[in-house]
Amino acid sequence: MAENDNHFDAGTDKDTLFMLGGVACIVFGAGLILSNPIVRRYLGQMGVGSLVQGALPDLDRYIRLRSM
Q: Under DSSP, is residue 67 helix (H, G, I), strand (E, B) or coil?
């Protein structure tokens, strides 16, 4: 038993690698989509900035409730 105390579980390491790889793929894909000028034009017309500003008070309230 003492022999395995200094070693990590190989399954856990592999799961972590897969999770981080998936997150990296999502971020890369979102970057590719958002770099398209047509998509950027549509997002500008929709007013995404005002949507984010409207959501900030709710997010702030949620974070305060979680910290209690």
A: helix
